[in-house]
Design brief:
alpha/beta; Rossmann fold; 9 strands
């Protein structure tokens, strides 16, 4: 076990968090990150994934990639994205995932830290186009638990799948850092 992996596990425990599950078995997958209400979710998710021996990549709005923060975000697996053209963004992520041997992509389906009623479906398009599984990753601020969650099977109906996924998350009774910004239905 590397010193960095040990340090990330130590830091997560020091912050009071418990790791619930380990890495997905697959070389490629999409890991949803819910609820996403604070930038601190990124840090918790990063420490979690590094502590279990993984290296996840995640989308971060390109405006965050200014020195020195941009250098840090890239080192932590951040991929700068232009959110103004979602179709191009999804296409580029599909191409990137298909070109790599190992690719764990973390996505916040809410698409923002603000409250939203409708989740984005890019995760669904990417998963269906690449044939990778989707895990219901979570950070539960109420109980300070973080994990990869269960694997879900997707159908051809993105809206129905997203609704079903939201219902699963709702039953998990997760605590968001800012509960007023987390809407599951």
């Amino acid at each position: 076990m590397s010193n960095w992996r040990k340090f990330c596990g130590w830091a997560l425990r020091k912050l009071g968090w418990t790791v619930v599950e380990g890495l997905p078995e697959e070389d490629k997958c999409i890991m949803l990150g819910v609820p996403h209400t604070t930038v601190w979710d990124f840090l918790i998710a990063y420490l979690y994934y590094e502590s279990i021996g993984g290296k996840a990549l995640c989308m971060v709005k390109k405006e965050m990639f200014f020195p020195p923060l941009g250098w840090i975000l890239k080192a932590m697996g951040g991929i700068p994205v232009d959110r103004s053209n979602s179709a191009a963004l999804v296409r580029s992520l599909i191409e990137e995932m298909n070109s790599r041997e190992h690719f764990h992509l973390a996505i916040a389906p809410e698409g923002t830290r603000k409250p939203v009623k409708r989740w984005k479906s890019g995760y669904h398009m990417i998963a269906r186009a690449t044939g990778v599984p989707v895990y219901l990753g979570y950070f539960d601020w109420k109980r300070k638990r973080v994990g990869r969650g269960q694997k879900v099977e997707l159908t051809d109906d993105a809206a129905a799948d997203t609704k079903r996924i939201q219902e699963i998350y709702e039953k998990m009774d997760l605590g968001a850092r800012y509960p007023e910004n987390y809407i599951t239905h």
